[in-house]
Design a protein that fits this description.
Elements: E1 2-3, E2 8-9, H1 22-25, H2 33-63, E3 65-69, E4 75-79, H3 85-101, H4 103-113, H5 115-131, H6 133-139, H7 141-155, H8 158-169, H9 175-203, H10 207-227, H11 240-250, H12 264-268, H13 271-302, H14 306-337, H15 342-365, H16 370-382, H17 384-391, H18 394-398, H19 403-428, H20 434-458, H21 479-485
Helix pairs in contact: 2-5, 2-9, 2-10, 2-13, 3-7, 3-19, 4-5, 4-8, 4-19, 5-7, 5-8, 5-10, 6-7, 8-19, 9-14, 9-17, 13-14, 13-17, 13-19, 13-20, 14-15, 14-16, 14-17, 15-16, 15-17, 15-20
Protein backbone atom coordinates (compact mmCIF):
# COMPACT_ATOMS: atom_id res chain seq x y z
CA UNK A 1 0.00 0.00 0.00
CA UNK A 2 1.36 3.35 -1.04
CA UNK A 3 0.23 6.43 0.87
CA UNK A 4 0.80 10.14 0.59
CA UNK A 5 -0.83 13.19 2.07
CA UNK A 6 -4.01 13.00 0.08
CA UNK A 7 -4.46 9.65 -1.64
CA UNK A 8 -4.58 5.97 -0.90
CA UNK A 9 -3.66 3.71 -3.82
CA UNK A 10 -4.68 0.09 -3.86
CA UNK A 11 -3.38 -1.94 -6.80
CA UNK A 12 -4.50 -5.54 -7.14
CA UNK A 13 -2.33 -7.60 -9.49
CA UNK A 14 -4.08 -9.41 -12.31
CA UNK A 15 -3.19 -12.58 -14.09
CA UNK A 16 -0.87 -11.29 -16.83
CA UNK A 17 0.06 -14.71 -18.22
CA UNK A 18 -3.21 -15.21 -20.08
CA UNK A 19 -4.50 -17.97 -17.76
CA UNK A 20 -8.05 -17.87 -16.45
CA UNK A 21 -8.59 -18.83 -12.86
CA UNK A 22 -11.65 -20.76 -11.78
CA UNK A 23 -13.08 -17.54 -10.36
CA UNK A 24 -12.56 -15.68 -13.64
CA UNK A 25 -14.03 -18.38 -15.84
CA UNK A 26 -17.25 -18.39 -13.81
CA UNK A 27 -17.69 -14.68 -14.37
CA UNK A 28 -20.81 -14.60 -16.52
CA UNK A 29 -22.75 -11.74 -18.06
CA UNK A 30 -25.56 -11.81 -15.49
CA UNK A 31 -23.05 -11.63 -12.64
CA UNK A 32 -21.58 -8.32 -13.80
CA UNK A 33 -23.01 -5.72 -11.47
CA UNK A 34 -21.70 -2.81 -13.55
CA UNK A 35 -23.92 -4.01 -16.40
CA UNK A 36 -26.90 -4.13 -14.05
CA UNK A 37 -26.09 -0.56 -13.01
CA UNK A 38 -25.93 0.41 -16.70
CA UNK A 39 -29.26 -1.31 -17.43
CA UNK A 40 -31.03 0.41 -14.54
CA UNK A 41 -29.42 3.72 -15.50
CA UNK A 42 -30.77 3.16 -19.02
CA UNK A 43 -34.30 2.86 -17.66
CA UNK A 44 -33.66 5.83 -15.38
CA UNK A 45 -32.92 8.04 -18.37
CA UNK A 46 -35.82 6.37 -20.18
CA UNK A 47 -38.09 7.73 -17.46
CA UNK A 48 -36.32 11.10 -17.45
CA UNK A 49 -37.16 11.76 -21.06
CA UNK A 50 -40.60 10.23 -20.92
CA UNK A 51 -41.38 12.68 -18.12
CA UNK A 52 -39.79 15.51 -20.07
CA UNK A 53 -41.36 15.04 -23.50
CA UNK A 54 -44.86 14.05 -22.40
CA UNK A 55 -45.97 17.67 -22.53
CA UNK A 56 -44.63 18.08 -26.09
CA UNK A 57 -47.24 15.59 -27.31
CA UNK A 58 -49.91 16.44 -24.74
CA UNK A 59 -49.84 20.12 -25.71
CA UNK A 60 -50.99 19.21 -29.23
CA UNK A 61 -54.08 17.49 -27.80
CA UNK A 62 -54.58 20.24 -25.21
CA UNK A 63 -54.69 22.99 -27.84
CA UNK A 64 -56.50 21.34 -30.75
CA UNK A 65 -60.17 22.27 -31.30
CA UNK A 66 -62.69 19.92 -29.74
CA UNK A 67 -66.44 19.72 -30.20
CA UNK A 68 -68.29 21.79 -27.60
CA UNK A 69 -72.06 22.22 -27.26
CA UNK A 70 -73.34 25.57 -25.99
CA UNK A 71 -76.43 25.99 -23.79
CA UNK A 72 -78.54 26.88 -26.81
CA UNK A 73 -77.54 23.65 -28.55
CA UNK A 74 -75.04 25.21 -30.93
CA UNK A 75 -72.00 23.05 -31.70
CA UNK A 76 -68.69 24.89 -31.86
CA UNK A 77 -65.08 23.76 -31.99
CA UNK A 78 -62.73 25.40 -29.51
CA UNK A 79 -59.47 24.24 -27.90
CA UNK A 80 -59.45 23.31 -24.23
CA UNK A 81 -56.43 25.59 -23.80
CA UNK A 82 -56.50 28.51 -26.22
CA UNK A 83 -52.81 29.41 -26.12
CA UNK A 84 -50.90 31.59 -28.57
CA UNK A 85 -47.65 30.33 -30.11
CA UNK A 86 -45.71 32.43 -27.60
CA UNK A 87 -47.63 31.03 -24.62
CA UNK A 88 -47.18 27.50 -25.92
CA UNK A 89 -43.44 28.13 -26.26
CA UNK A 90 -43.28 29.43 -22.68
CA UNK A 91 -45.15 26.40 -21.34
CA UNK A 92 -42.86 24.00 -23.21
CA UNK A 93 -39.65 25.78 -22.17
CA UNK A 94 -40.58 26.28 -18.50
CA UNK A 95 -39.13 22.90 -17.54
CA UNK A 96 -35.68 24.08 -18.55
CA UNK A 97 -35.71 27.12 -16.27
CA UNK A 98 -35.61 24.77 -13.31
CA UNK A 99 -33.39 22.25 -15.08
CA UNK A 100 -30.73 24.93 -15.60
CA UNK A 101 -30.44 25.83 -11.92
CA UNK A 102 -29.56 22.43 -10.42
CA UNK A 103 -26.87 21.22 -12.84
CA UNK A 104 -23.85 22.43 -10.87
CA UNK A 105 -25.39 21.82 -7.42
CA UNK A 106 -26.31 18.32 -8.59
CA UNK A 107 -22.75 17.61 -9.71
CA UNK A 108 -21.32 18.99 -6.47
CA UNK A 109 -23.77 17.02 -4.33
CA UNK A 110 -23.06 13.81 -6.25
CA UNK A 111 -19.31 14.25 -5.74
CA UNK A 112 -19.87 14.71 -2.01
CA UNK A 113 -22.42 12.02 -1.14
CA UNK A 114 -22.54 9.75 -4.19
CA UNK A 115 -24.54 9.97 -7.37
CA UNK A 116 -26.79 6.95 -6.88
CA UNK A 117 -29.07 8.45 -4.21
CA UNK A 118 -29.28 11.90 -5.78
CA UNK A 119 -30.12 10.30 -9.15
CA UNK A 120 -33.02 8.40 -7.58
CA UNK A 121 -34.36 11.43 -5.71
CA UNK A 122 -34.27 13.55 -8.85
CA UNK A 123 -36.31 11.13 -10.94
CA UNK A 124 -38.61 10.10 -8.10
CA UNK A 125 -39.59 13.66 -7.24
CA UNK A 126 -40.16 14.52 -10.91
CA UNK A 127 -42.42 11.46 -11.24
CA UNK A 128 -44.46 12.47 -8.21
CA UNK A 129 -44.93 16.03 -9.46
CA UNK A 130 -45.97 14.71 -12.88
CA UNK A 131 -49.03 13.13 -11.25
CA UNK A 132 -50.18 16.61 -10.18
CA UNK A 133 -49.76 18.17 -13.63
CA UNK A 134 -53.35 17.69 -14.97
CA UNK A 135 -55.20 19.26 -12.01
CA UNK A 136 -52.73 22.14 -11.86
CA UNK A 137 -53.07 22.74 -15.61
CA UNK A 138 -56.85 22.90 -15.25
CA UNK A 139 -56.47 25.40 -12.42
CA UNK A 140 -54.27 27.90 -14.28
CA UNK A 141 -51.54 28.16 -16.89
CA UNK A 142 -49.31 29.84 -14.30
CA UNK A 143 -49.50 26.80 -12.02
CA UNK A 144 -48.70 24.49 -14.94
CA UNK A 145 -45.60 26.55 -15.69
CA UNK A 146 -44.66 26.54 -12.00
CA UNK A 147 -44.88 22.75 -11.61
CA UNK A 148 -42.84 22.24 -14.78
CA UNK A 149 -40.14 24.54 -13.39
CA UNK A 150 -40.01 22.52 -10.16
CA UNK A 151 -39.88 19.26 -12.15
CA UNK A 152 -36.90 20.71 -13.99
CA UNK A 153 -35.21 21.53 -10.69
CA UNK A 154 -35.34 17.89 -9.63
CA UNK A 155 -34.48 16.37 -12.99
CA UNK A 156 -31.55 18.75 -13.40
CA UNK A 157 -29.37 16.63 -11.12
CA UNK A 158 -29.61 13.46 -13.21
CA UNK A 159 -26.90 13.91 -15.84
CA UNK A 160 -24.21 15.17 -13.42
CA UNK A 161 -25.07 12.39 -10.97
CA UNK A 162 -24.59 9.57 -13.45
CA UNK A 163 -21.02 10.69 -14.11
CA UNK A 164 -20.37 10.38 -10.38
CA UNK A 165 -21.71 6.82 -10.62
CA UNK A 166 -19.47 5.97 -13.60
CA UNK A 167 -16.38 7.48 -11.97
CA UNK A 168 -16.71 4.64 -9.44
CA UNK A 169 -18.29 1.86 -11.51
CA UNK A 170 -16.86 2.13 -15.04
CA UNK A 171 -13.51 0.56 -15.99
CA UNK A 172 -11.50 3.00 -18.11
CA UNK A 173 -11.74 0.80 -21.21
CA UNK A 174 -15.55 0.66 -20.95
CA UNK A 175 -16.42 4.29 -20.26
CA UNK A 176 -17.85 5.08 -23.68
CA UNK A 177 -20.04 1.99 -23.98
CA UNK A 178 -21.40 2.09 -20.43
CA UNK A 179 -22.06 5.83 -20.49
CA UNK A 180 -23.62 5.87 -23.95
CA UNK A 181 -25.70 2.77 -23.19
CA UNK A 182 -27.15 4.54 -20.15
CA UNK A 183 -27.65 7.79 -22.07
CA UNK A 184 -29.40 5.93 -24.89
CA UNK A 185 -32.26 5.36 -22.47
CA UNK A 186 -33.09 9.03 -23.01
CA UNK A 187 -33.77 8.42 -26.67
CA UNK A 188 -35.47 5.09 -26.11
CA UNK A 189 -37.74 6.90 -23.68
CA UNK A 190 -38.48 9.46 -26.35
CA UNK A 191 -39.14 6.74 -28.93
CA UNK A 192 -41.62 4.92 -26.71
CA UNK A 193 -43.24 7.87 -25.00
CA UNK A 194 -44.06 9.95 -28.07
CA UNK A 195 -46.32 7.39 -29.79
CA UNK A 196 -47.57 6.09 -26.45
CA UNK A 197 -48.49 9.63 -25.41
CA UNK A 198 -50.40 9.97 -28.68
CA UNK A 199 -52.32 6.76 -27.97
CA UNK A 200 -53.02 7.75 -24.37
CA UNK A 201 -54.26 11.17 -25.48
CA UNK A 202 -56.55 9.52 -28.03
CA UNK A 203 -58.03 6.81 -25.80
CA UNK A 204 -57.86 8.26 -22.28
CA UNK A 205 -57.52 11.98 -22.84
CA UNK A 206 -54.33 13.95 -22.37
CA UNK A 207 -54.31 13.70 -18.51
CA UNK A 208 -53.69 9.95 -18.83
CA UNK A 209 -50.25 10.73 -20.26
CA UNK A 210 -49.08 12.24 -17.00
CA UNK A 211 -50.64 9.60 -14.74
CA UNK A 212 -49.09 6.64 -16.59
CA UNK A 213 -45.56 8.02 -16.78
CA UNK A 214 -45.64 9.39 -13.25
CA UNK A 215 -46.44 5.92 -11.87
CA UNK A 216 -43.76 4.23 -14.02
CA UNK A 217 -41.18 6.69 -12.74
CA UNK A 218 -42.01 5.92 -9.11
CA UNK A 219 -41.69 2.16 -9.76
CA UNK A 220 -38.24 2.65 -11.29
CA UNK A 221 -37.15 4.85 -8.36
CA UNK A 222 -37.97 2.11 -5.87
CA UNK A 223 -35.98 -0.52 -7.78
CA UNK A 224 -32.91 1.70 -8.27
CA UNK A 225 -32.90 2.75 -4.61
CA UNK A 226 -32.88 -0.87 -3.44
CA UNK A 227 -30.38 -2.29 -5.95
CA UNK A 228 -27.70 0.25 -6.91
CA UNK A 229 -24.92 1.07 -4.47
CA UNK A 230 -22.63 4.09 -4.42
CA UNK A 231 -19.56 2.08 -5.46
CA UNK A 232 -18.63 -1.53 -6.30
CA UNK A 233 -16.87 -1.78 -2.93
CA UNK A 234 -20.23 -1.29 -1.20
CA UNK A 235 -22.17 -3.80 -3.33
CA UNK A 236 -22.58 -7.07 -1.39
CA UNK A 237 -23.45 -9.02 -4.55
CA UNK A 238 -20.47 -8.15 -6.74
CA UNK A 239 -18.03 -10.97 -7.54
CA UNK A 240 -14.45 -10.74 -6.34
CA UNK A 241 -13.21 -10.92 -9.95
CA UNK A 242 -15.32 -7.99 -11.10
CA UNK A 243 -14.38 -5.91 -8.08
CA UNK A 244 -10.68 -6.51 -8.76
CA UNK A 245 -11.12 -5.67 -12.43
CA UNK A 246 -12.87 -2.36 -11.72
CA UNK A 247 -10.41 -1.37 -8.99
CA UNK A 248 -7.42 -2.17 -11.19
CA UNK A 249 -8.80 -0.24 -14.15
CA UNK A 250 -9.59 2.79 -12.01
CA UNK A 251 -6.10 2.63 -10.52
CA UNK A 252 -7.20 3.89 -7.13
CA UNK A 253 -9.57 3.09 -4.32
CA UNK A 254 -11.85 5.35 -2.36
CA UNK A 255 -10.48 6.88 0.83
CA UNK A 256 -13.13 6.96 3.51
CA UNK A 257 -13.91 10.47 4.68
CA UNK A 258 -11.92 12.04 1.88
CA UNK A 259 -12.69 15.60 0.86
CA UNK A 260 -12.56 16.59 -2.77
CA UNK A 261 -11.56 20.13 -3.67
CA UNK A 262 -12.53 21.34 -7.13
CA UNK A 263 -9.99 23.68 -8.79
CA UNK A 264 -12.64 26.04 -10.17
CA UNK A 265 -10.31 28.62 -11.69
CA UNK A 266 -8.34 25.96 -13.56
CA UNK A 267 -11.50 24.20 -14.72
CA UNK A 268 -13.18 27.37 -15.95
CA UNK A 269 -10.10 28.46 -17.91
CA UNK A 270 -9.35 25.03 -19.41
CA UNK A 271 -9.75 24.90 -23.24
CA UNK A 272 -10.73 21.17 -23.23
CA UNK A 273 -13.49 21.94 -20.72
CA UNK A 274 -14.91 24.64 -22.98
CA UNK A 275 -14.65 22.33 -25.98
CA UNK A 276 -17.01 19.99 -24.12
CA UNK A 277 -19.30 22.85 -23.10
CA UNK A 278 -19.63 24.17 -26.66
CA UNK A 279 -20.19 20.69 -28.10
CA UNK A 280 -22.83 19.88 -25.49
CA UNK A 281 -24.62 23.17 -26.20
CA UNK A 282 -24.51 22.60 -29.96
CA UNK A 283 -25.88 19.06 -29.82
CA UNK A 284 -28.65 20.05 -27.44
CA UNK A 285 -29.78 23.00 -29.56
CA UNK A 286 -30.88 20.83 -32.45
CA UNK A 287 -32.06 18.06 -30.15
CA UNK A 288 -34.25 20.27 -27.93
CA UNK A 289 -35.67 22.16 -30.89
CA UNK A 290 -36.91 18.95 -32.49
CA UNK A 291 -37.81 17.31 -29.18
CA UNK A 292 -40.11 20.20 -28.36
CA UNK A 293 -41.54 21.08 -31.76
CA UNK A 294 -41.30 18.06 -34.06
CA UNK A 295 -44.92 16.93 -33.46
CA UNK A 296 -46.07 20.52 -34.06
CA UNK A 297 -43.91 20.80 -37.19
CA UNK A 298 -45.37 17.59 -38.63
CA UNK A 299 -48.89 18.89 -38.01
CA UNK A 300 -48.22 22.40 -39.38
CA UNK A 301 -46.30 21.49 -42.54
CA UNK A 302 -47.55 18.01 -43.43
CA UNK A 303 -51.00 18.15 -41.76
CA UNK A 304 -50.46 15.09 -39.57
CA UNK A 305 -53.03 14.15 -36.96
CA UNK A 306 -51.89 14.13 -33.33
CA UNK A 307 -51.62 10.33 -33.16
CA UNK A 308 -49.66 10.09 -36.41
CA UNK A 309 -47.35 12.97 -35.50
CA UNK A 310 -46.33 11.20 -32.30
CA UNK A 311 -45.35 8.02 -34.13
CA UNK A 312 -43.39 9.76 -36.86
CA UNK A 313 -41.70 12.12 -34.39
CA UNK A 314 -40.34 9.11 -32.51
CA UNK A 315 -38.30 7.78 -35.46
CA UNK A 316 -35.30 10.14 -35.11
CA UNK A 317 -34.88 9.15 -31.47
CA UNK A 318 -35.11 5.46 -32.29
CA UNK A 319 -32.23 6.03 -34.69
CA UNK A 320 -30.25 7.86 -32.03
CA UNK A 321 -30.83 5.13 -29.44
CA UNK A 322 -29.49 2.53 -31.88
CA UNK A 323 -26.56 4.65 -33.08
CA UNK A 324 -25.48 5.28 -29.50
CA UNK A 325 -24.99 1.54 -28.98
CA UNK A 326 -22.87 1.23 -32.10
CA UNK A 327 -20.91 4.42 -31.41
CA UNK A 328 -20.05 3.52 -27.82
CA UNK A 329 -18.77 0.06 -28.72
CA UNK A 330 -16.92 1.32 -31.79
CA UNK A 331 -15.24 4.07 -29.79
CA UNK A 332 -13.99 1.65 -27.12
CA UNK A 333 -12.94 -0.88 -29.78
CA UNK A 334 -10.83 1.72 -31.61
CA UNK A 335 -9.30 2.73 -28.30
CA UNK A 336 -8.36 -0.86 -27.41
CA UNK A 337 -6.95 -1.44 -30.89
CA UNK A 338 -4.82 1.70 -30.65
CA UNK A 339 -5.99 2.75 -34.12
CA UNK A 340 -6.25 6.39 -33.03
CA UNK A 341 -5.36 8.31 -29.91
CA UNK A 342 -8.14 8.88 -27.38
CA UNK A 343 -8.21 12.58 -28.32
CA UNK A 344 -8.54 11.87 -32.03
CA UNK A 345 -11.32 9.34 -31.42
CA UNK A 346 -13.32 11.95 -29.52
CA UNK A 347 -12.72 14.53 -32.28
CA UNK A 348 -13.60 12.18 -35.14
CA UNK A 349 -16.83 11.02 -33.54
CA UNK A 350 -17.98 14.45 -32.40
CA UNK A 351 -16.95 16.62 -35.34
CA UNK A 352 -17.93 14.04 -37.95
CA UNK A 353 -21.39 13.85 -36.41
CA UNK A 354 -21.82 17.64 -36.23
CA UNK A 355 -20.79 18.20 -39.85
CA UNK A 356 -23.17 15.47 -41.02
CA UNK A 357 -25.99 16.87 -38.90
CA UNK A 358 -25.41 20.30 -40.47
CA UNK A 359 -25.91 18.83 -43.94
CA UNK A 360 -29.00 16.78 -43.15
CA UNK A 361 -30.75 19.57 -41.24
CA UNK A 362 -30.37 21.83 -44.29
CA UNK A 363 -31.66 19.02 -46.50
CA UNK A 364 -34.70 18.60 -44.23
CA UNK A 365 -35.36 22.33 -44.36
CA UNK A 366 -35.73 22.19 -48.15
CA UNK A 367 -37.73 18.95 -48.29
CA UNK A 368 -41.31 19.29 -49.48
CA UNK A 369 -41.79 15.52 -49.53
CA UNK A 370 -42.83 14.10 -46.18
CA UNK A 371 -40.87 10.85 -46.55
CA UNK A 372 -37.66 12.64 -47.52
CA UNK A 373 -38.06 15.12 -44.68
CA UNK A 374 -38.58 12.40 -42.09
CA UNK A 375 -35.57 10.45 -43.42
CA UNK A 376 -33.31 13.53 -43.30
CA UNK A 377 -34.43 14.46 -39.78
CA UNK A 378 -34.02 10.87 -38.62
CA UNK A 379 -30.45 10.75 -39.95
CA UNK A 380 -29.64 14.19 -38.52
CA UNK A 381 -30.82 13.30 -35.02
CA UNK A 382 -29.50 9.73 -35.18
CA UNK A 383 -25.96 10.81 -36.00
CA UNK A 384 -25.96 12.69 -32.72
CA UNK A 385 -25.23 9.30 -31.16
CA UNK A 386 -21.67 9.55 -32.50
CA UNK A 387 -21.32 13.04 -31.03
CA UNK A 388 -22.33 11.71 -27.62
CA UNK A 389 -19.49 9.19 -27.82
CA UNK A 390 -17.23 12.20 -28.17
CA UNK A 391 -18.13 15.00 -25.79
CA UNK A 392 -20.32 13.16 -23.25
CA UNK A 393 -17.53 10.87 -22.01
CA UNK A 394 -14.83 13.52 -22.41
CA UNK A 395 -15.40 14.71 -18.83
CA UNK A 396 -14.25 11.30 -17.58
CA UNK A 397 -11.18 11.46 -19.82
CA UNK A 398 -9.80 14.79 -18.68
CA UNK A 399 -10.74 14.82 -14.98
CA UNK A 400 -12.34 11.68 -13.53
CA UNK A 401 -12.74 12.93 -9.93
CA UNK A 402 -14.40 16.12 -11.16
CA UNK A 403 -16.50 14.48 -13.89
CA UNK A 404 -19.86 15.03 -12.17
CA UNK A 405 -19.15 18.73 -11.63
CA UNK A 406 -17.88 19.14 -15.20
CA UNK A 407 -21.02 17.44 -16.50
CA UNK A 408 -23.01 19.85 -14.34
CA UNK A 409 -21.13 22.76 -15.89
CA UNK A 410 -21.55 21.61 -19.49
CA UNK A 411 -25.17 20.60 -18.99
CA UNK A 412 -25.93 23.98 -17.41
CA UNK A 413 -24.85 25.71 -20.60
CA UNK A 414 -26.41 22.93 -22.70
CA UNK A 415 -29.76 23.57 -21.01
CA UNK A 416 -29.91 27.09 -22.42
CA UNK A 417 -31.12 25.76 -25.80
CA UNK A 418 -34.12 24.28 -24.01
CA UNK A 419 -34.92 27.73 -22.64
CA UNK A 420 -34.10 29.77 -25.73
CA UNK A 421 -35.11 27.61 -28.69
CA UNK A 422 -38.83 27.01 -27.91
CA UNK A 423 -39.72 30.72 -27.48
CA UNK A 424 -37.47 31.60 -30.41
CA UNK A 425 -39.15 29.02 -32.63
CA UNK A 426 -42.54 30.21 -31.40
CA UNK A 427 -41.64 33.78 -32.34
CA UNK A 428 -40.43 32.70 -35.80
CA UNK A 429 -43.25 30.30 -36.65
CA UNK A 430 -46.13 32.73 -36.19
CA UNK A 431 -47.94 31.67 -39.37
CA UNK A 432 -46.91 28.00 -39.18
CA UNK A 433 -45.55 27.97 -42.74
CA UNK A 434 -42.82 25.76 -44.19
CA UNK A 435 -40.72 28.85 -44.90
CA UNK A 436 -40.77 29.87 -41.25
CA UNK A 437 -39.88 26.37 -40.09
CA UNK A 438 -36.97 26.45 -42.55
CA UNK A 439 -35.43 29.32 -40.58
CA UNK A 440 -35.64 27.23 -37.40
CA UNK A 441 -33.72 24.41 -39.10
CA UNK A 442 -31.11 26.82 -40.52
CA UNK A 443 -30.33 28.09 -37.02
CA UNK A 444 -29.75 24.53 -35.78
CA UNK A 445 -27.49 23.77 -38.76
CA UNK A 446 -25.34 26.85 -38.14
CA UNK A 447 -24.90 25.97 -34.47
CA UNK A 448 -23.84 22.40 -35.34
CA UNK A 449 -21.20 23.80 -37.71
CA UNK A 450 -19.77 26.22 -35.15
CA UNK A 451 -19.71 23.43 -32.56
CA UNK A 452 -17.71 21.18 -34.88
CA UNK A 453 -15.10 23.87 -35.49
CA UNK A 454 -14.60 24.77 -31.83
CA UNK A 455 -14.54 21.18 -30.56
CA UNK A 456 -12.04 20.15 -33.23
CA UNK A 457 -9.82 23.07 -32.23
CA UNK A 458 -9.89 22.80 -28.42
CA UNK A 459 -10.65 19.15 -27.61
CA UNK A 460 -8.31 16.96 -25.60
CA UNK A 461 -8.87 13.57 -23.99
CA UNK A 462 -5.69 13.66 -21.90
CA UNK A 463 -5.92 13.91 -18.14
CA UNK A 464 -5.43 17.58 -17.27
CA UNK A 465 -2.60 18.71 -14.97
CA UNK A 466 -4.96 20.61 -12.68
CA UNK A 467 -6.58 17.33 -11.62
CA UNK A 468 -3.66 16.88 -9.20
CA UNK A 469 -4.94 19.87 -7.25
CA UNK A 470 -7.81 17.83 -5.81
CA UNK A 471 -7.38 16.77 -2.23
CA UNK A 472 -8.16 13.38 -0.72
CA UNK A 473 -10.14 12.25 -3.77
CA UNK A 474 -11.21 8.94 -5.15
CA UNK A 475 -10.26 9.20 -8.79
CA UNK A 476 -9.48 7.20 -11.89
CA UNK A 477 -6.12 7.44 -13.54
CA UNK A 478 -5.73 7.56 -17.29
CA UNK A 479 -7.32 4.36 -18.43
CA UNK A 480 -4.95 3.84 -21.34
CA UNK A 481 -1.81 3.78 -19.28
CA UNK A 482 -3.25 1.84 -16.36
CA UNK A 483 -4.99 -0.86 -18.32
CA UNK A 484 -2.07 -1.50 -20.60
CA UNK A 485 0.51 -1.48 -17.85
CA UNK A 486 -1.38 -3.75 -15.49
CA UNK A 487 -2.64 -6.45 -17.78
CA UNK A 488 -6.23 -5.45 -18.49
CA UNK A 489 -5.57 -5.84 -22.20
CA UNK A 490 -4.96 -9.52 -21.41
CA UNK A 491 -7.80 -11.56 -22.89
CA UNK A 492 -8.19 -13.45 -19.63
CA UNK A 493 -9.53 -10.30 -18.01
CA UNK A 494 -11.08 -8.52 -20.99
CA UNK A 495 -14.68 -9.00 -19.89
CA UNK A 496 -15.90 -5.89 -21.66
CA UNK A 497 -18.62 -7.25 -23.91
CA UNK A 498 -22.08 -5.94 -23.16
Amino acid sequence: MKKNKHYSYSYIPLNTEGEKTKEQSSWRFWQKRRLLVALLAFFGFFNCYALRVNLSVAVVAMTEPVETELENGTIIYVPEFDWSSQTKGLVLSSFFYGYLVTQLPGGWLAAKIGGNRVFAIGIGATSLLTLFTPPLAHTSTALLIAVRIVEGLFEGVTYPCIHAVWSRWAPASERARLATFAFSGSYAGTVVSMPLCSLLAHYTGWPGIFYVFGILGLVWTTIWWLVVKESPEKDPHITAAELKYIQESRGTQTVEGAQLRHPWCAMLTSPPVWAIVVAHFSENWGFYTLLTFLPTFMKDVFKFETSSAGWVSALPYLAMALVLQVAGHLSDWLLRRGTFSRTNIRKIFNCGAFLSQTIFMVAAAYSSNVVACVVFLTIAVGLGGFAWSGFSVNHLDIAPPHASVLMGLSNTVATLPGIISPPLAGAIVTDRTAEQWRIVFFISSAIYLVGAIIYGWLCSAERQPWVAECEGASFSTDGASVTTARGIDNKAMDHTEM
